[in-house]
Amino acid sequence: MRYSILFVVFCLNLSIGVLNANAQIFPKIIKKNNNTQSSTVGQERKNIELRSFDQESYLKTLSSVTDSIIFENNVHLGRVRSIISEDQNIMIWAPTNQLIKVSEQIQIDSIWVTAYEYYSAWDSNKIDIYNFDPKTFKDSVNIQLYDEFFGYNWKMPLETTPVTSPYGYRWRRWHYGTDLDLNTGDPVFSGFDGIVRVKSYDRYGYGYYIVVRHKNGLETLYGHLSKQLVDIGQEVKAGDLIAYGGSTGKSTGSHLHYELRYRGLAFDPQKVYDFSDNKILSQNYLITPALFGNIVQARTNAYHKVKKGENLGSIARKYGVSVSSLTKLNGISTRTILKIGQNLRVK
């Protein structure tokens, strides 16, 4: 009996040891001295250098890869986009209705992307930046000028649009726009929805002028303005007031010089508008190679710069043409005195 009691006691001691070996051990909780902690934090803060956040530098260093990831479900910024959308029957625009600023970069809903990546080509200093050769343009492109269903509208550039000088050849040079009569200070409106790309001054030509890039793939130019009311990068809607008309630059009187351009090349606005009836002709316009026939012809023309001692006869012999053809091409006579440095068309 005594041995049985000893055996039970031995087993109980053994089981207690096993339980202690497998028991969870909790760490001791040590309460820190608050005074010591506060003094340490104070010492650490003395070493912190407070600096303002340089937003401009940060935005410039954003990578296109990061922007592509952000917009990967909407637009692939890494791929150079066409100047116009692939399907002209569908209005394609930026993934936002708020475009805040354009300089070298564009801020879209607080996310910055480079203008070149998103718009394929962007320059706020030059009018024609596309290097488009019309001789290689063989296909036709259907431009949807507006779509009221989706809220993309159109507007005449002036409240009334009397034509004073049409698109075409005049004064021995080509006139690339349509001149519309106005009084200085008359309001000038954006023709379609778009973004202001150029706001500049041309002393010997357009005077104060604005170029707007539109959602439909075209650009419009407004020249001889008295005052510009919009900034580069500003998003405008059709009919928004963008300027006041005037007679700045090379102008003989107050009027609006209005141009329509496709990929940098101007074409006749009267193919799109009926200015006498103050309306647009159609919702769509077909861009064809024939539209730029005059530009192709002009670029194939050959010119000669007159040098000292040259005359019409020597220049004609040099290019294998007749003197009469030279006078006809240049609107001069055989008695015209040639000036050194003067450009003569020879073909």
UniProtKB/TrEMBL annotation:
<dbReference type="GO" id="GO:0004222">
    <property type="term" value="F:metalloendopeptidase activity"/>
</dbReference>
<dbReference type="Pfam" id="PF01551">
    <property type="entry name" value="Peptidase_M23"/>
</dbReference>
<dbReference type="InterPro" id="IPR036779">
    <property type="entry name" value="LysM_dom_sf"/>
</dbReference>
<keyword id="KW-0378">Hydrolase</keyword>
<dbReference type="InterPro" id="IPR011055">
    <property type="entry name" value="Dup_hybrid_motif"/>
</dbReference>
<dbReference type="InterPro" id="IPR050570">
    <property type="entry name" value="Cell_wall_metabolism_enzyme"/>
</dbReference>
<protein>
    <submittedName>
        <fullName>Murein DD-endopeptidase MepM and murein hydrolase activator NlpD, contain LysM domain</fullName>
    </submittedName>
</protein>
<keyword id="KW-0732">Signal</keyword>
<dbReference type="Pfam" id="PF01476">
    <property type="entry name" value="LysM"/>
</dbReference>
<feature type="signal peptide">
    <location>
        <begin position="1"/>
        <end position="23"/>
    </location>
</feature>
<dbReference type="InterPro" id="IPR018392">
    <property type="entry name" value="LysM"/>
</dbReference>
<dbReference type="InterPro" id="IPR016047">
    <property type="entry name" value="M23ase_b-sheet_dom"/>
</dbReference>
<feature type="domain" description="LysM">
    <location>
        <begin position="302"/>
        <end position="346"/>
    </location>
</feature>
